[in-house]
Design brief:
Length: 221
């Protein structure tokens, strides 16, 4: 177990004892391990949390984003990496902002703002975890992850950074953007990507290649 994983377990234990927040944590499941490629890390993939909808399948999640197994998320990220000219198996470090499992997927927890309430406990550890990967670009996975990361007033919609306009089908698109280091709590440039299920939306399907090329030109040129 790495130092970060040891500290994550301690944070989770402390949260479990919290009278308010503890009721939203499933402490019966271990924290999934980060995924680390076998070679030089050239990309960080930041996920939200490991809590999938099907509770019966959560215990099978041992590595962040299930990247130790073939599946739709792994295939999606492999496609992104191929477009960037890197190898998922070699060059990627993947982790979650919220390390442990919640009792339900956070979007189904409406009593509190789960992302804001838990971010204070997990953000400092994430900053420590990413510190060894100085100057490595970060892609975020999923829209709910943006709100706890960006500063007040900074857009928290993935489609904003992908140039969405109501007339995008007619070719009227805004410029492609990323979240600059000064605009988010990680102090790093962030490139927002939709989570894999959102790829069913025609806008993301149409814009995916352009955004991957944008990331490549911005950080891998």
């Amino acid at each position: 177990m790495t130092s970060v994983e040891t500290k994550a377990a301690a944070v989770l234990e402390q949260l479990t004892r919290d009278k308010c927040l503890g009721q939203y944590i499933d402490a019966s499941l271990p924290i999934p391990h980060p995924f680390r490629g076998s070679g030089e890390i050239q990309l960080i993939v930041l996920g939200q949390d490991p809590t999938i909808k099907d509770a019966t399948r959560r215990s099978a999640i041992r590595v962040v984003l299930n990247l130790d197994k073939n599946g739709s998320v792994k295939a999606y990220l492999a496609r992104v990496c191929n477009g960037l000219g890197i190898d998922l198996r070699t060059n990627v470090y993947a982790t979650n902002l919220y390390k442990g499992f919640f009792v339900r997927p956070p979007t189904q927890i409406t009593e509190i703002d789960i992302f804001q309430e838990f971010s204070g406990a997990w953000l400092p550890l994430l900053l420590e975890e990413l510190a060894p990967f100085d100057n490595v670009p970060v892609i975020t996975l999923g829209e709910p992850l943006l709100a706890p990361l960006v500063h007040s007033g900074v857009p928290a919609r993935v489609r904003h950074y992908w140039g969405y306009t109501p007339d995008w089908r007619a070719g009227r698109l805004d410029p492609l953007l990323y979240i600059r280091a000064q605009d988010n709590r990680l102090g790093r440039d962030l490139f927002p990507f939709p989570h894999q299920p959102s790829l069913r939306k025609l806008f993301y399907q149409a814009r995916m290649g352009d955004y991957v090329s944008f990331v490549k030109a911005t950080v891998f040129a």
